[in-house]
Amino acid sequence: ILKDAIFIQNLPKDITREDIQDAFSTVGPIKTDERSGGPKIWIYKDRMTGEGNGRATVTYDDE
Protein backbone atom coordinates (compact mmCIF):
# COMPACT_ATOMS: atom_id res chain seq x y z
CA ILE A 1 0.00 0.00 0.00
CA LEU A 2 1.31 3.41 -0.95
CA LYS A 3 0.78 5.84 1.90
CA ASP A 4 1.57 8.86 -0.27
CA ALA A 5 -0.92 8.05 -3.07
CA ILE A 6 -4.65 8.55 -3.43
CA PHE A 7 -7.08 6.69 -5.67
CA ILE A 8 -9.80 8.78 -7.31
CA GLN A 9 -12.90 7.52 -9.10
CA ASN A 10 -16.01 8.92 -10.80
CA LEU A 11 -13.89 11.31 -12.85
CA PRO A 12 -14.99 12.44 -16.32
CA LYS A 13 -13.76 9.93 -18.90
CA ASP A 14 -12.05 12.71 -20.88
CA ILE A 15 -10.15 14.22 -17.92
CA THR A 16 -6.50 15.08 -18.55
CA ARG A 17 -3.42 14.86 -16.37
CA GLU A 18 -3.35 18.65 -16.36
CA ASP A 19 -6.93 18.81 -15.05
CA ILE A 20 -6.07 16.38 -12.25
CA GLN A 21 -2.85 18.23 -11.44
CA ASP A 22 -4.69 21.57 -11.23
CA ALA A 23 -7.32 20.15 -8.89
CA PHE A 24 -5.17 17.98 -6.63
CA SER A 25 -1.96 20.03 -6.37
CA THR A 26 -3.87 22.36 -4.03
CA VAL A 27 -3.67 19.58 -1.41
CA GLY A 28 0.12 19.28 -1.61
CA PRO A 29 3.02 18.89 -4.03
CA ILE A 30 2.60 16.03 -6.50
CA LYS A 31 5.61 13.77 -6.90
CA THR A 32 7.58 13.97 -10.16
CA ASP A 33 7.64 10.81 -12.26
CA GLU A 34 11.30 9.90 -12.82
CA ARG A 35 10.62 8.42 -16.27
CA SER A 36 8.46 11.15 -17.79
CA GLY A 37 9.58 14.14 -15.73
CA GLY A 38 5.91 15.09 -15.33
CA PRO A 39 3.58 14.77 -12.37
CA LYS A 40 3.10 11.23 -11.04
CA ILE A 41 -0.53 10.84 -12.08
CA TRP A 42 -1.86 7.60 -13.50
CA ILE A 43 -5.12 7.69 -15.44
CA TYR A 44 -6.65 4.23 -15.79
CA LYS A 45 -7.78 3.41 -19.32
CA ASP A 46 -10.21 0.96 -20.88
CA ARG A 47 -8.10 -1.81 -22.44
CA MET A 48 -10.28 -2.10 -25.52
CA THR A 49 -10.82 1.57 -26.37
CA GLY A 50 -7.84 3.27 -24.73
CA GLU A 51 -10.20 5.89 -23.27
CA GLY A 52 -10.11 6.91 -19.64
CA ASN A 53 -12.43 4.93 -17.38
CA GLY A 54 -12.98 7.60 -14.73
CA ARG A 55 -10.30 6.47 -12.28
CA ALA A 56 -6.83 7.78 -11.47
CA THR A 57 -4.05 7.64 -8.91
CA VAL A 58 -2.12 10.71 -7.73
CA THR A 59 1.14 10.28 -5.81
CA TYR A 60 2.19 13.11 -3.53
CA ASP A 61 5.75 14.10 -2.73
CA ASP A 62 6.41 12.91 0.82
CA GLU A 63 9.57 14.96 1.34
Automatic annotation (TrEMBL):
Residue ranges that the Swiss-Prot or TrEMBL entry lists as coiled coil: none
SUPFAM superfamilies found in the cross-reference section: RNA-binding domain, RBD (SSF54928)
One GO biological process term: regulation of DNA-templated transcription
Alphabetic keyword roster: Nucleus, RNA-binding
PROSITE patterns: RRM
Subcellular location, record wording: Nucleus
Tagged with keyword Nucleus: yes
Presence of keyword Transport: no
Name recorded for this polypeptide: RRM domain-containing protein
Organism ancestry: Eukaryota, Metazoa, Spiralia, Gnathifera, Rotifera
